[in-house]
Amino acid sequence: METEQCHKYLLDKLKAEQILSKEEIIQLLTDVSDQDREYAAKLARKAREPYYGKDIYTRGLIEFTNYCRNDCYYCGIRKSNDKAVRYRLTKQEIEACADAGFRLGFRTFVLQGGEDAYFTAERIADLVLTLKQKYPECAVTLSVGEQSYETYRMWREAGADRYLLRHETADVCHYRKLHPQKQSLTRRKKCLFALKELGYQVGSGFMVGSFGQTFQCLAEDLFFLKELSPQMIGIGPFIPHRDTPFGRMEAGSVELTLFLLSVLRLMFPKVLLPATTALGTLHPRGRELGILAGANVVMPNLSPVGVRDKYELYNNKICTGEEAAECRNCLELRMEAIGYRIVQDRGDAK
Ligand code: SAM
Ligand code: FES
User: In whole angstroms, what is the distance from residue 139 CA to residue 128 CA?
Assistant: First the structure.
């Protein structure tokens, strides 16, 4: 079969069956043309339509600490980066971010940070409780890495609805290239299954184009996601940060990220799929292209402008100078320009 026909055949098969073999996934990811990408995006938009129409959900991201005990080689806020200027938001500051977000129409707050010992299980439970009491109609999402089952349980009981924990890579050898010995893929996967068991809506995912990633790794990622069956999947291109061991590496490909978004939409028609800030950082219309490739969520920043540039996972991150309201309006206009609309909704998975 001609390469292009082969891609079309595999995409049609994926749409019909929502799964391919690993060999077929590798074939699908090899030698993708612009035409293949367009075809995949068209199928992906069609697959999303019955569940989400033209609606785009927003999540207000509150990056509340950039202290972290981990040392992921790719991450700008890793423990060993002594050039990172560290900060923690106070409870009052976090509440103020949520208050401003609520007024702007956000109905999901995402509390994201490094694994910071200051924020004990009890402190985070208190934050969740406070936000849920104040805004019972809103969803609270946590994204603070690997924790014990008991901690996850405490946060769930405090009212946390969702948890974002990218698996990063499902391939053990690839995982080793990205993380020091102390960190383990087995533990990360165990956390994800614990979160599911506790009734969280779970988000997982991976970076595209991280050091050592092959199509084989990506096929493993897609298979792992099938096994986990998360409600949300976050993918974005790897972008280097100058003060990390990966500082001189090339960024991931925008085109491959967009194609993978379409592939994910075909594999998981109902999944919540963000067009990430990383995508918007590498391409001026990255988030719009992400939506047109099948994504249905955007995650603007609600963190105070004074700390935005300190939550620097990678260099040149966009939207570090804008107030929350500016980001909200900017995204609304961007979505409208491509025929989509931001809705005021918790945005639970269908
Ligand atoms: N500590 C939490 C955790 O580990 O899940 C949440 C914060 S962590 C910084 C959030 C995500 O940022 C990671 O899962 C990773 O995929 C992404 N990330 C980190 N460094 C990145 C980089 N250089 N380029 C793109 N994404 C990156
Ligand atoms: Fe902990 Fe990146 S190394 S958030």
Answer: 10
- Given a cut of 90, whether residue 5 has pLDDT beyond it is no
Q: Are strands 162-164 and 139-143 parallel, antiparallel or unpaired?
A: parallel
Lining ligand 1 with CB less than 6 A are 74-75, 112, 114-115, 143-145, 165-166, 168, 207, 236, 238-239, 241, 278, 313-314
The alpha carbon of 215 and the centre of ligand 1 are apart by a number of angstroms equal to: 21
Under the banding of pLDDT at 50, 70 and 90, the label for residue 40 is very high
Ligand nearest to the CA of 180: 2
Model pTM score: 0.98
Q: Starting from the edge strand earliest in sequence, which strands make up the sheet with 232-237, in order?
A: 60-65, 108-113, 139-143, 162-164, 201-208, 232-237
Q: Which residue has the tokens 């890495």?
A: 145
59 CB burial (10 A radius; 0-12, 13-18, 19+): buried
Instruction: Quick: pLDDT tens for 7-24.
Output: 999 999 999 999 999 999
- The pick from 59, 75, 318 for probing ligand 1's pocket by mutation, whose C-beta has the most ligand atoms within 8 angstroms, reads 75
Whole-angstrom distance, CA of residue 285 vs CA of residue 299: 15
For the CA of 313, the nearest atom of ligand 1: 20
Q: Is 297 helix (H, G, I), strand (E, B) or coil?
A: strand
- Among all bound ligands, the one having the nearest atom to the CA of 244 is 1
